[in-house]
Amino acid sequence: MPWNVLLLTAMALAAVQHRTEAAVLGESRKLIFPELRTVSNYARLDTALAQDLTSFTLCVQMRSDVPYSLINYYQMGIVSYAVPSNHNELLLFIEKGFNLYMYDYILMANPASPWDGEWHTVCTTWRSSDGAWQFYVDGALTASASGFLVGGRVRTGGMWILGQDQDNVGGGFAAHQAFSGEMSQVNLWDRVLSADEIGADCNHHGNVIDWDTTNIEIFGQVTTAEYRCRLPCTADIVLVLDVSSSISRDQFVLARDFMMSFVECAALRDQDIWIGVMQYTCEASTYIALGQYALGSVQLGPAIHYIMYQGGETRTGEAIRKMRSTSGWRDELEIPRAAVILTDGQTTDDYANEAEAARNAGVALYSVSVGFPALINNAALATITNDNGRVFAVNQPCDAADKIVADLCG
Q: VWFA domain: which residues (predicted)?
């Protein structure tokens, strides 16, 4: 048996031995498909259908940042099931959005953008009796209808391939249809799951394909890594940067570098966090709107880098007031909010009452000391947060990211 089969078999056995823990924590494994798309990169599931399927639910978690220009013209196979009489017996693939082939009939059902580099949970359901089908992305129903292949079935005797589109059983791959990205949690049931069951996307164990116990053989440059499935925490964080004369140009650069490192560290937590950036002197203005860039976007860091030093009077209270009222927070009340004030604590207005108003409005406040140590008003920074444990030095971006994400997401 090849070494990679032995490796994944051992991992599967470990998953069985720790089944309860894995179900609770969502711990499993993921496949990593390289950026260079070739016909040699794929994975094969060591499983077979025991009987024809007259209904099913297929779910997969994946992420890919292949440029839209490529997706616009090519496909990427995610899950392919081929039988001798039909190489598209069941095929989940990306072409502008998530789509499904059955019997060479296509459902171009969902225009979601799967190439954004974020993890997405995709589920599709179908039943033979009335041809009803559904597409879910990240727990939300995105498309549904009926009358598709009424009386049909997914037949036994086929092969399951991940990361390619089979044009014959076990082969016939094309490089322009190869998957690039990461994939995990491929599960298949012989029934249509309810919306609530689909929404619980970290407790999935299919009764036809169970990702945690199915042996997987990998080929080419596909690798494996540990993966922790979890429902992403949703939160909004606004970074509020003092660019006034109270801060020297050199200290301003350190504060800007803090923000760039902060977003990099926060992105490692794989959460649904929006980052906004404001800058202020005597007036405050939005520099990066919440949601303008996804956390982890390659564009976010460079955008922060281009913030310019301005000079002028310092009005931290006005900045906090404007942050609270005009930041573009997401409307859902349950989404936690936080703001990080980067300043030396020297200000000419009433920052204390504005900070209290922000906290009372549900915005958790944190501060970062910027400037020469002898000139920093540490008491003011503590007053802003009302908690000394929420005050950070300018050389602690990852400590701040860890603390804030933990506070917001638990």
A: 236-408
State mean pLDDT over 168-182. Answer: 94
Distance CA 121, CA 202 (A): 10
Could you tell me where the DSSP H helices lie in 54-179? Answer: 68-71
pLDDT reading at 19 higher than 60: no
Matching residue, tokens 């599960």: 187
Q: Please determine, for residue 252, whether its predicted confidence score (pLDDT) is greater than 90.
A: yes
The one-letter amino acid at 60: V
**DSSP conformation letters of 145-195:** ES-SSTT--B-SS-EEEESS--SBTTB---GGG---EEEEEEEEESSPPPH
pTM for the full model? 0.56
Q: In the β-sheet with 42-45, what is the strand arrangement from edge to edge? A: 105-110, 97-102, 86-95, 76-83, 159-162, 42-45, 216-219
Give 297-328 pLDDT, tens digit per residue. Answer: 888 999 999 999 999 999 999 999 999 998 88
What sign for the dihedral angle of Cα 89, 208, 270, 18? Answer: negative
Widest Cα–Cα separation across the chain = 79
- CB neighbours of residue 410 within 10 Å: 7
Which residues in 308-329 are b (16+ Cβ under 10 Å) and which e? ebeeeebbbbbbbbbbbeebeb
Please report the domains of the chain, with CATH numbers, ordered by start residue: 3-228 (2.60.120.200), 234-409 (3.40.50.410)
Percent of the chain residues topping a pLDDT of 70 = 86
Cα angle 62, 68, 73; round to 5: 105
Strands across the sheet with 272-280, in order? Answer: 284-288, 272-280, 234-242, 337-343, 363-369, 391-393
How far apart are alpha carbons 195 and 382 in whole angstroms? 46
Cα(217)–Cα(201) distance, integer angstroms: 24
